[in-house]
Amino acid sequence: MTPVILPQDISTKPQAPFIHAFVSFFGKHEMDVAARLIVEVLSRHNKWEPFLLSDIIFAGRHSKPKEIDDFVIEGFEELLSRGWIKHAHGSLFVVSDDFINRCKEKSDQRVK
After folding, report:
1. Do the beta carbons of residue 7 and residue 107 sit within 8 Å?
2. Per-residue three-class SS string for 3-55
3. Where are the domains positioned within the chain?
4. What sign results for the dihedral spanned by CA atoms 109, 12, 2, 81?
5. What is the C-alpha separation between 50 and 43, in angstroms, rounded?
6. Torsion on CA atoms 7, 38, 95, 52, rounded to nearest 10
7. What are the phi and psi torsion angles at 74 (to 5°)?
């Protein structure tokens, strides 16, 4: 049985000052930032539940450093177009299993 990976199992702590936690996780800085924000938002309830793009934008505005809305949206759209996240219903989105596994794998590699 494969262990269940929860959002709080993935480290969102910066690797070093001025280097965000998900650097090179998805191959494009905008995607890495959006992915980190998604994990941060979903870590609040520690569930891979549906979320709104506005939740991610709001998190970017309050992150340190603050992320520019257009930058976050570009990364989000890139993650969506590549299948890392998917439409759930209405304006809700969900992360794919591949997204969860990639974040956990890269996070584990970074903290070793």
Report:
1. no
2. CCCCHHHCCCCCCECCECCCCCCCCCHHHHHHHHHHHHHHHCCCCCCCEEHHH
3. 26-111
4. negative
5. 12
6. 120
7. -60, -45
CATH 1.10.10.10 assigned to domain 26-111? The reply is: yes
Token duo for residue 21: 């936690």
For the whole model, what pTM was predicted? 0.90
Residue listed under structure tokens 């996780």: 25
What does DSSP say about strands 85-87 and 51-52: parallel, antiparallel, or unpaired? unpaired
Higher pLDDT, 85 or 66: 85
Supply the DSSP symbol for 89: S
Residue 87 has pLDDT above 80, yes or no: yes
